[in-house]
Amino acid sequence: MVGPWAHTRPPFRYDLHFLLICNFAGGFGQFAALKTYNKDLKTMLAIGGWNEGSRRFSPLVEDRDRRQVFIKSAIRFLRQYNFDGIDLDWEYPTQRAGGRPQDRANYATFIEEMREAFQSEADKTRKERLLISMAVPASLEYAGKGYAIDRLNEALDFFNLLTYDYHAAQEPAVNHHSPLFRPDDWSEYDFRQDLNIDATVRFYLENGATRDKLVLGIPTYGRSFTLANPDVHEIGSPATAPGEAGSGTKEDGYLAYYEICNQILDDDWELVTQYPGYMGPYAHKGNQWVGFDDVDAVVEKAFYVAEEELGGIMFWTIDNDDFRGTCGKTPYPLIESAKEAMFSVKHSIKT
Q1: DSSP string of 176-212?
Q2: Which of 119, 155, 228, 273 is deepest in the core (most CB within 10 A)?
Q3: Which residues pair with 14 in a beta bridge?
Q4: 131, 89 in Cβ contact below 8 A?
Q5: Residues catalogued as catalytic
Q6: What does the pLDDT profile of the chain (351 residues) look like in tens digits?
Q7: What gap in Å lies between CA 338 and CA 2, rounded to an integer?
């Protein structure tokens, strides 16, 4: 995750700070040691993920004693390994196996108690308070049912918006998985009308989130499909299955940006930008199709973040970008381009 943090944790500001979220089991010491190279770096430990579901989260947040045990152990662990905070990734309250209607209120209570305990620990130890962030869904339905956004906004330092995978590779038609806006030629009756970043951001703002606590998620991967007819490849065209697995990522329906850009350069995939400014391009060859964000698309999103005065940008994931720079002049073209664009707009606003 990168970003010049415009959001505040009163009375401090996090402008120009960089933050990384760590979600691997080992190497905590080496990870925290990165702060010796950048004194402004903030490191956080992520808990949860898609595979975790609700089966353990739901009983945890329901029981006060369990909540307190978790919070106290979290403080000890974070301090022991020199983390600066915790990122909670429950996907999703009230949903999936083990989810219950009361998850919404219980989750907010859990975060409020965590914030109070973190502040108390900081006051007693005179250390900087541990941060709390939360991964939250792009789906308006999931966000409304599972998250008391107004309560969470008071207790969290920021929300990480999972603003990608608006479409899955198992769907019967090809669609871009992370559009910024709804195209003008899609009617209000189109099932895709709210499946875009701008709709998600507006929903969170209308339900109690503050702009500077919303961190926008940008994908460095594409969602791929197998076309029903290789000659019909526009957005919304029929698909029969997820796309073929890439040589590096080895997952059907999923291609890293470094795989996509090399296919375009070396394998003669055709690049098409059907809705410039609204969503990223797609590439296709034969019956294979992939929608993704290129440099132009991530720059548009970075400008959106700056102009809407959001809190920053989060990428999923660092290693899916062209980290070796095989497709261009420099490594990490998506992450670096977005960062530079966001800084440029914020700098012009400040001056």
Answers
A1: -SS-SS--TTS-TTSTTTT-SHHHHHHHHHHTT--GG
A2: 155
A3: 5
A4: no
A5: 91
A6: 433 333 333 323 333 334 555 555 458 888 888 999 999 999 999 999 999 999 999 999 999 999 999 999 999 999 999 999 999 999 999 999 889 999 999 999 999 999 999 999 999 999 999 999 999 999 999 999 999 999 999 999 999 999 999 999 999 999 999 999 999 999 889 999 999 999 999 999 999 999 999 999 999 999 999 999 999 999 999 999 999 999 999 999 999 999 999 999 999 999 999 999 999 999 999 999 999 999 999 999 999 999 999 999 999 999 999 999 999 889 999 999 999 999 898 555 442
A7: 10
Q: List the Cα angle 255/344/137 in 5-degree steps.
A: 45
Q: Where are the beta strands (DSSP E) in the chain?
A: 5-9, 12-14, 19-22, 42-49, 85-90, 131-137, 158-162, 214-219, 221-227, 239-242, 254-256, 270-272, 282-285, 288-291, 312-316
pTM above 0.85, yes or no: yes
Q: What is the side-by-side order of every strand in the sheet holding 158-162?
A: 19-22, 42-49, 85-90, 131-137, 158-162, 214-219, 312-316
Integer Rg of the chain from CA: 20
